[in-house]
Write a structure and sequence with these properties.
The complex is a heterodimer of chains A (about 240) and B (about 110). Chain A has about 240 residues and is mainly α. Chain A is built from 13 helices and no strands. By secondary structure, chain B is mainly α. Classes of the chains: A mainly alpha (about 240), B mainly alpha (about 110).
Amino acid sequence: MGDDVSLLWVYLSERPLTWLTATVTAYAIADRIALSVGRHPLFNPVVLAAIIVIAVLTLTGTPFPVYFEGAQFVHFMLGPATVALAIPLVENWGTVKRAARPIAAALVAAALTAVGSALALGWAFGLPRDVLVSLAPKSVTTPIAMGISASLGGIPALTAILVIMTGVCGAMTVTPLMNALKMRDMAARGFAAGVAAHGIGTARAFQVDPLAGAFAGIGMALNGAFTALLVPLLLGLF
Amino acid sequence: MINALVVLLGLQLMGEVVVNLFGLPIPGPVLGGGALAVILLARGRVGAELSSTAHVILRNLSLLFVPAAVGVIEYRDMFVAYGLPLFVTVLGSTMLAMAAAALVFRWVGR
């Protein structure tokens, strides 16, 4: 009997379906927890779901590549989801057009602050240059950030972690920070989340308000392009 | 839903092909999304099916980041060396960037 169970587990643990199911189930549980606390920003569903999955992988001794065989189907949907950001953009086009000037100004301010403050803080902590390069593009979406990091002598794998950390930090702090600044405009709040904390910030914005989500998507897309131009320039200073 | 998926996947594919062909420094899906926005604006409306499918996906955008977030465990060694300074830098810099974005947005929007 015990042998049968362990054989069954050996079989299941190597099926992509097991880890696909685990990912979606962990998210369903995480989202429920987040809902039950009224979407309190500290109960971020990405973090809660990742903690659940990491606990299961650790307890079962499952290596990440085996997990990713199943999880890749969820991961893959990031592509079509990025294309889908065009839809709220078009649906809110009137508001977006009227906000063209604040969008442009806030993009420049946020991108300069994100890259500049990361380099300045990291430099003050005495981090080595390759780590500084890896930090610089942390506010943009992973493929762009890793590309910037690789082309300028950073460590792309470290950049990937820092990008995720940035997204999580942004998603968890955006609501209390915006409240402290008495920011009532959902467009400004959403834009801030997307421009500084890319997709994970945008995901938070969509859970709070559709208009905030649309502006977060704009911020994320614009900053991807802008930071690619900005990082090489600012790195010259450090 | 199927027609909407054809549109989303088709434009992603088109984006990837163009990016590869011309060696552009942006991801294919971003270009595909830009192209979709241009097409929809030219058409002047978003179909009900495309709209509802997109909103279902975007409402659950958090789910799509779970595998990448789990992937952080692959690189934990890299983090141990500089853990605390990196964490403080990322948290501080992200909050500063969000504050700068929102304050400038409000100031210029007046």
